Amino acid sequence: xxxxxxxxxxxxxxxxxxxxxxxxxxxxxxxxxxxxxxxxxxxxxxxxxxxxxxxxxxxxxxxxxxxxxxxxxxxxxxxxxxxxxxxxxxxxxxxxxxxxxxxxxxxxxxxxxxxxxxxxxxxxxxxxxxxxxxxxxxxxxxxxxxxxxxxxxxxxxxxxxxxxxxxxxxxxxxxxxxxxxxxxxxxxxxxxxxxxxxxxxxxxxxxxxxxxxxxxxxxxxxxxxxxxxxxxxxxxxxxxxxxxxxxxxxxxxxxxxxxxxxxxxxxxxxxxxxxxxxxxxxxxxxxxxxxxxxxxxxxxxxxxxx
Amino acid sequence: xxxxxxxxxxxxxxxxxxxxxxxxxxxxxxxxxxxxxxxxxxxxxxxxxxxxxxxxxxxxxxxxxxxxxxxxxxxxxxxxxxxxxxxxxxxxxxxxxxxxxxxxxxxxxxxxxxxxxxxxxxxxxxxxxxxxxxxxxxxxxxxxxxxxxxxxxxxxxxxxxxxxxxxxxxxxxxxxxxxxxxxxxxxxxxxxxxxxxxxxxxxxxxxxxxxxxxxxxxxxxxxxxxxxxxxxxxxxxxxxxxxxxxxxxxxxxxxxxxxxxxxxxxxxxxxxxxxxxxxxxxxxxxxxxxxxxxxxxxxxxxxxxxxxxxxxxxxxxxxxxxxxxxxxxxxxxxxxxxxxxxxxxxxxxxxxxxxxxxxxxxxxxxxxxxxxxxxxx
Lengths: 306, 377
Fold this sequence. Notes:
Chain A contains 13 helices and no strands. Chain A is an all-alpha fold and 306 residues long. Chain A has one domain. With 377 residues, chain B is of the alpha/beta class. Helices cover 41% and strands 18% of the residues of chain B. The chains are: A mainly alpha (306), B alpha/beta (377).
């Protein structure tokens, strides 16, 4: 029983970076922008966040620096894709490749550096509950913040006027433009929010999860987060569940190995993408399904006044 | 249309020709120039190193670079060393090695298994240069190999692990199921069971040499299943740091990693390449260089078990010293029969010491390791 509790705990920790990045990408995809640069933004944020945490000794300043770096990288993408009308997919890919190289370049001085770590205390009172304590209440604060963030984003999308405007920009930018909404600025705000959250995710990996900086440490998690938004059919709660599912699969595979059961690691690392393709096939077969779920203008360049 | 593509072809041909001419111009004179005076006294012997990782990795490459510095310290201005870091195994390596030769290096150390083919090719073209390949097996008149008996360190780690474990479960984070790594898992287990026959080893593979997040997850997963002492054959400090976070024990690998986990760090399985590099460069300086396959271990000081934690109880320390003395007296004798694999089959009869073939082709777990060796390499 205790092993299962610990497996749940490890799953929460492993799913959190995916959830943070996935929620960020969800925000900018709901506004109609696909940013394939997640992997690059996370890498840049991971090294920036690590450097800030290393130099100041504060994890939270590290997260702030990571968010700022992610948003800064996203602003390059936003400027190119929204104001210079470049193709979103190509621009995002370029950002991913750029981020991988740039982070390695600026991060050479931080390879092999050690962050002073304090043990994670969790939630006082609840952390000592039998089973539930070790399973749920001994995590880093960022784990709980990501759950709160999911709730906040869901509330924003479906309960606020601003959320409605953001979604309408993603569904019908021309109509939103005709109604007088500044489509490009709204999209830019969404892109920046997405970049900042990807940045927090990258910083979580380098400051809390690993905790160290090394080139290539994002190791495909940005791509998994991108797949996650599709897997979740663009719903906040499902992004969170999907993140725990993908995180849980990894941990379960390692756990089974420890028990002496062999599962091919390569198959497991393929699973998130495979399941995303399955979801895509399922929702794409039905025109109504796809209309209900996918932001209608996703990935399309918007020219105001055309 | 026709005309333009013809012009394009011509332009391309001219560009390529210029490119080739430029390459050809820069290459031949350089190796030719230093050849007449191979080891002239006035000119320092140039020694080049190629590394697979960054020198700041706190592990494998870092340890090699300390060895390079030992050469500089020993021979002073008689030598001039240089290195190229983060060289990918494969075609890139050959280009880098040729480049080092072109720069006048007379001794070249390649510090990863995957550089072997490239070394062999360049060695054939440059008989005047001495090539040294770490963990390799190919030889030529000017190419030889050197390696550590790394598993001796893993055995010593096992002795300590067996002495301090409370759960009698120890864990190993593996990279790829190749003989080199299996030797370490088995040596770790044999060491532990030599002092505590109740010990069981759990193994988790992560299919990477260097992926801190995966290493963290694997270590956490082993700890969750009751392992309280961990060893890894991966290159980052993540396993050690995960043990520290959980109040368990672990070891440094490849170099002294005590700074990363003051409480969890039982000791480090460090590699001290310095003495070998000093000897190899000395061979060239004294003109006594000959083709050999060097395998050094605890006795020669290539594998060093360093920074044993002060918290280790004296009884465990005594057992460690005993094991060390045994390895110094019997180099390579970690694999001495009777040894059974974990299905109960005898793989080494009583009194027989495993030879290079036995160690080189190892593909089983010894008794005490749980699970099966994953299929496929």
